[in-house]
Amino acid sequence: MQIFLDAIRAALARATGLNEADVKLEAPRDSAMGDVAFPCFQAAKLAKKAPPVFAAELATSISSTLPSIRATAAGPYLNFTILRGPLAQAVIGEISARGASYGGSNEGAGKTIVIDFSSPNIAKPMHVGHLRSTILGAALGRIFSALGYRVVGINHIGDWGSQFGGLVVALRRWKSEVDLETDPVRGLLELYQRSKKAAESDPTFAAEARAAWQELESGRDGEVRATWRWATEASLRGFSKTYARLGIRHDLVRGESFYEPFIGSAIDACEKGQITEVSKGALVVQLGAIDKALEETPCLLRQTDGTTLYATRDLAALFHRYEEFHFERALYVVGAEQKLHFRQLKAVLKRLGLPWESRVEHVDFGLLLGRDKKKLASRKGDVLVLDDLLDEVVEESTRIIAEKNALLANPRAVAEQIGIGAIVFNDLKRERIKDVLFDREEILSFEGETGPYLQYTHARLASIERKVLAAGEGGTAPDWSKLEDAGPVLTRLGRFPEVVRSAAEHAEPSLVANALLALGRDLNAWYVQARVLGQEPAVTAARLALVRASKTVIGNGLRLLGCVAPDEM
Ligand code: ARG
User: Fold this and answer.
1) Residue 461 near residue 550, CB atoms below 8 Å
2) Which of 109, 425, 446, 478 could form an S-S bond across to 541 if both were Cys, CB 3.0 to 4.6 Å?
3) Which of 163, 309, 334, 340 to mutate to test the pocket of ligand 1 (most atoms within 8 A of CB)?
């Protein structure tokens, strides 16, 4: 598709005297009018003509230079339609040549994208906010990788803070009273909650917890550190099960504690940059001059008692990451409730005059809400544990699958793919900053705007392909001109690489999700009236080629998002 767009751009530049970069093409208001539109206002002004007159003249003069493209004027616009035969041949040819890599490119070669995502806290289960971060961050990682970037996914585990002194003491006292084997995260949560209560009501416990935290901070490698390390590892073991189900991995697991040794030099850099002040005994960076909204909220680097904070560790982590990776972009996939925190971090970089400040982005997102638009809770009404949510949805999808296709060879595996696909797609289909509604039935619907709908479309395309091949058809040379009725599908297929690019640029996987939904709609409209099997051989071949190309694109798109694309369901 791109070659046609390039040809149009070049021809327009020649005919109008504009630079190619200034030839702005847009989507026509109505797709029936053409594949791309050129608004003539600017060029008409240069030629000192009325835009509609200019457009009409241009239509005649440019047509002869673009053999596979029809140009028609509509008022001040010039619309271009790529002839379906040549479009089909080019688009389908490219998709079948590129296969699983169609949609990707090499544009990111040599550049690194650091993505901080998921980043749960130890001794607590991952909650739904972490789920969104995990799904969004992993999708972004795959999208950037497809574009040739080197992606470094970092799990910035919350493993540091005075509360872990209490946890260590709780483990010391009550370890044998809880089950830390079957489900370490749940067992640790129990101890963690108990330690919080004890710290409030029992002064000896509180003192012991403080001492443990001090020892942890001192860096001494004794019993306290060993216990804390054990808890961290047990938590990670629990999280890794969830990650495996979602098909997700991090390149680096570096908790907040990892950056402890680098905090000193981060604070030094701020002091050398002369941006720090002592305010009521604490070390702060004032940010009002950089960002009026931060007037009242300076960045606190060190408290009166000498302890550092979440922000201090994040600052140290940023310096460390820039040193190590010289990233093109550093994306923090963290909920919108931490907006202030990231705004402060960026403002500190600005105050230091660091030119790479603009490469640091808070990729924020909205909440995951239940049907009643309230925060999602478990069926029993208490804190929602992520794994339980996955289990519930998979259970439901098992039931649906059994109903729809009792002959399926591996129903359990497919049910897991569909259940996870439903959750993942639901999370990615709307602009990330919007809240996501989570309705167990709706996200699993095969008819709605869902992951299962696209997975089902993929399986259906695979089944058409199997049937045609089993009938011994589809082997002739395709007659591309017979895909005249598939224009909307062809242009969507052709635009897919541009969609992927744009999803990366805006850190917005929903662009891919929505392009797939639109493709699914156009495809369904096409194949209700275009049978593949049993046509004139050149027609069957052309339609089969379109079916295969669509299957490739839907499959590639689903995989970029983190959904499996089954051949059967
Ligand atoms: N652990 C934090 C939380 O659960 C998220 C950390 C995000 N990453 C970061 N570098 N601050 O809220």
Assistant:
1) yes
2) 478
3) 334
Residues forming a β-bridge with 73: 78
DSSP for 244-292? HHHT---SEE--GGGGGGGHHHHHHHHHHTT-EEEETTEEEE--TTT-G
Rounded CA separation 132/334 (Å): 9
Based on the number of CB atoms within 10 Å of its own CB, is 465 exposed (0-12), middle (13-18) or buried (19 or more)? middle
Residue 16 burial by CB count (10 A; 0-12/13-18/19+): exposed, middle or buried? buried
Provide the terminal-to-terminal Cα distance of the chain, rounded to the nearest Å: 32
Of 365-374, 407-416, 419-428, which gets the smallest average pLDDT?
A: 365-374
| 9 has a pLDDT exceeding 70 | yes
- In 10 A of CB 383, how many CB atoms? 13
Amino acid at position 162, single letter: S
CB 152 within 8 A of CB 251: yes
If one residue of 155, 252, 253, 338 were mutated to test the ligand 1 pocket, choosing by the most ligand atoms within 8 A of its CB, it would be 338
112 sits in which H/E element:
strand 112-116
- Give the H/E segment covering residue 80: strand 77-82
Number of other residues whose CB lies within 10 A of the CB of residue 294:
20
- Beta-carbon count within 10 A of 340 CB: 12
For residue 217, is pLDDT > 80?
Answer: yes
Known catalytic residue: 127? yes
130 is catalytic: yes
Going by the DSSP 8-state scheme, the letter that residue 477 receives in this structure is P
CA atoms of 317 and 243, how far apart (whole Å) = 23
pLDDT in tens, 317-332: 999 999 999 999 999 9
- What is the CA(130)–ligand 1 centre distance, in A? 9
Task: Answer for the pair 248, 233: CB distance below 8 angstroms, yes or no.
Answer: no
C-alpha distances in angstroms, 308 versus 257, 313, 550? 11, 7, 53
Confidence bin at 521 (pLDDT 50/70/90): very high
Catalytic residue among 49, 111, 124, 241: 124
Q: Are strands 77-82 and 36-39 parallel, antiparallel or unpaired?
A: antiparallel
CA 529, CA 548: separation in Å to the nearest integer?
17
Counting from 1 in the atom list of ligand 1, the atom nearest the Cα of 341 is 11
Distance 334 CA to ligand 1 centre (A): 7
320 is catalytic: no
pLDDT at 37 over 80: yes
pLDDT at 524: 94
pTM for this predicted structure: 0.95
**Measured distance CA(119)–CA(222) in Å, rounded:** 26
Cβ burial of 216 (10 Å; 0-12, 13-18, 19+) is buried
Cα atoms found within 13 Å of the Cα of residue 372, Cβ hemisphere only? 5
How would you classify the pairing of strands 77-82 and 112-116? unpaired
Q: How far apart are CA 15 and CA 7, in angstroms?
A: 12
Alpha-carbon distance of 45 to 282, in angstroms, equals 61
Other C-beta atoms lying within 10 Å of the C-beta of residue 335: 17
| Ligand 1 contact, 321 CB (< 6 A) | no
